[in-house]
Protein: Zinc carboxypeptidase family protein
Amino acid sequence: MQPKISTIPLIKLASGDYLSLQVYKFQGAKPGKKAYIQSNLHGAEISGNAVIHHLIADLIKLDETQLMGEIWLVPVCNPLGVNQRAHHFSSGRYNSYDGKDWNRIFWDYEKTEVDIAEFARSQQNLSLPEIQTNYRQKILEQFQTLIQTTKNQSQTSYSESYRTILQSLCLDADYVIDLHSSTNQAIDYLYCFQSREESAKAFLLDYGILMNNYDGDAFDEAFLKPWLALEKQLSSLGKTVKFEIESWTLELGSGMKMNPESVEKGIRGIKNYLACKKLLNLDEFPLPATSNHPLKLTLKSQAKRYYAPTGGMIQNRVELGSSVKTGETLYQILSFNKTENLPQIIDIKAESSGVIFDVSTNHTVNQCDYVLSVMEQVST
Ligand SMILES: [Zn+2]
Structure:
């Protein structure tokens, strides 16, 4: 099966050069669900590109009859971010022009002038597929008005233009997967929305963060939040439903590198997920153990970030992926002074038990710089 490959112009640079997106579209023999997968929205987070490369290579080997529906793949989905450098480092987490985090710019249907409660009331006697079709239509219609406004290029920032192009590729999808890694260094884990925990196991990752709060600005949130809002409204009317619509952010290892183990986990997880969702018909997936996979979830509010209480250099930090107990030393700060005193070593203790899932790359800290993150009260 060969993909249809199309390029989409994004931006003309001052030098006269253009930046573009390239989309790889695999279409199965029969229509079905659509999965949309992108990587490298944050410039340093490159591991998903290797995952997409492997997926393309594997999908090409399949017969059209093994794909029900379609899979769209967009590697290096943020060229400005990918190409950004500060000295030797990939610094493309923020748009250097307006300072915005590239993954906090997206369009959320729920924040437009819509009355989802009223829509839910109008649909409560319809079937789930009918409601889904009608709601999708509403979202796409509203999105058209956004597209119209961005057509006036004299009034459109790059963030607005870029998000519109990216979201136009996925708003009609059923499954959205946004491949990230830490911009620093991290274990492999995913972000999971509440009520989608069972599906999360299909990615076969060991850890996840459960999104008990979100504002809709991130790519995964912007896609799913309006659907979760409708589910909530229907539930309040006594109609408990779950749309077969999901979005995920996979965090595959560390920034500025493509750790083979993280890449392998990403490929395996996505294949297993797509097989569980019956998009892909593969011999080796889904794995029978999927429903029993021990995914340890922690609430987003219990993923705690530690910042340096004073300036200095970090030493003897606990290993990434290790567990700590309350009161144990997380790391030390070698602290110098200009008060005619000797340098000091300061122990920083864990304020609660948990798993170290993300650590800073830079071991030099100004006061209040980020040092590490702990998943507290991890549960299975
Ligand atoms: Zn990211």
Q: What stands out?
A: The chain has two domains: 4-294, 302-376. The chain has a mean pLDDT of 97. The CA atoms of residues 3 and 26 lie 5 Å apart.
